[in-house]
Amino acid sequence: MRARGGLRKRRGILSVTALAATLAFAMAVAFVVFASGVASAAPALAPAAPAASSPAPAATAPAADISDGPAPTISLDPIGGPWPALSGLIDHGPSDRRWVTLTFDDNYNPDLTLSVLRTLRLTATPATLFLIGLANQASQATVDAIAADPLLEVADHSLHHVDLTERDAAFLQQNIGGGVETYRQMTGAHTSFFFRPPGGHFNPLVLGIAAQKGFVDTVTWDSSPGDYLGPSADAIVANIMSTLRPGAIILLHFNAPHTASALPKLIQSIKARGYKLVTLSQLLKGSRTFYDVQPSDPAFDAITYMNRTGFLRGFPTGDYGAVEGLSRQDLARALVLGLGFHTKEVDTSHPTFADVLPPTSDTSDGSGTQTARFDYIEEAVAHGLMQGGKGDAGQGNAGQAVFWPKATVRRIDLALAVAKAAALLTASLPTRFADVPAQAQQAVAAVVEAGFMDAPGGTFRPYDPVSRAQAAQVLQRLFVALGVEQK
Predict the structure, then answer these.
(1) Which pLDDT belongs to residue 33?
(2) What stretches in the chain show pLDDT beneath 50?
(3) What is residue 432's predicted lDDT score, i.e. its pLDDT?
(4) Which contacts of 16-23 are long-range, i.e. CB under 8 A and separated by 24 or more positions?
(5) Which superfamily is assigned to 88-284 in CATH?
(6) pLDDT score for 55
(7) Start-end ranges of CATH 3.20.20.370 in the chain?
């Protein structure tokens, strides 16, 4: 087992700085309405106590996005770096606990894949799935079923599933990451940054390009029953049980003819031996809270704070998604909870956005947007912390109010939200950033002046995506400055 290196310093996030002098100036006054005409009552400097039962103020039709730039999109690449020269190799986990991991490759056959997924869900079994991009694109039902199960960890098995050691660098750049990228495009759901090369074949070029694309760890296996060769269900179970050991990474295949039928007995047999089935992240993280967060990481304290308070938790699969883009729906939730604006009742009779429906809707997409984020999004908009915009014909919602809940937060979005939440004075600050739209200049300047975010070299890079680790650092500074107590 190779111990994963810590997160690298993130672009665009200032290290912890002294805020007292600046905040004394910036937060002692009321929030000035932005030039776009967006008007809302600013929250008090100390977070308001959450209402016990009264609903949040009814949200009016949203104003146009104040950034007046491109519509938000889902960021498919890891955010951060620099990455190591070569992706590290892992073929087994720690042997100090009776924990093992089921991993599945080759989701070509939708029926067999859905059968495996059904057993995993009914038995509440965690597993790590290495997905092929083209197979994802061939079955929306499959990726939706995966996204609906919070115990499943999604990792990359490339776009085309060919022997990558026989291909050139350009092909590798196109293919490595294709499994998780297509999955995120289709679902907007979380993925890990584990990579498994097709067939387990790799060379220095494969490991180097995997590392360039943020896959710090390349994972093979130490237990395989050869299920793809067609042995019976009983033979699959017997093979795995004969070599089972603590820390095992077990390789199975969705499309093997008898794997789905072997799975119920296999799960039962593993548990009967006193083993615990976990995801790959859970297997490898040891005593850490999250596999992808080390105590030496610059964002460690902020992530610990945000997870402990519940404002921005990690994932049940065992990772924080530190280098993954923060979704707009998760920013809304973090802001509303941190500022004490969440209520037990939110009006669901008139949804503000066409792409965020109330939990009573029959069209839930399984990703949690409608059942877990509707109220937070409505509250964030009602309190003026975030905005939506107008849909376009390409998404089938032309002219409708939309929020883009799964899209990745951009630096300009985060700056505007923080400025509103902290009620920063913006009118007296000079225009500073040539790359920031005029209507957002004062908000960005105030956030930078207060030390919540930075602008190295005098540029702000407003449309760069924000990672969950970066957001944790900025939001921790905001909530600490506002006196939000940890739970």
Answers:
(1) 28
(2) 1-67, 361-371, 425-426, 487
(3) 81
(4) 16/473, 16/477, 17/451, 18/451, 19/450, 19/451, 19/452, 19/477, 19/481, 22/449, 22/450, 22/451, 23/422, 23/450, 23/451, 23/481
(5) Glycoside hydrolase/deacetylase (3.20.20.370)
(6) 38
(7) 88-284
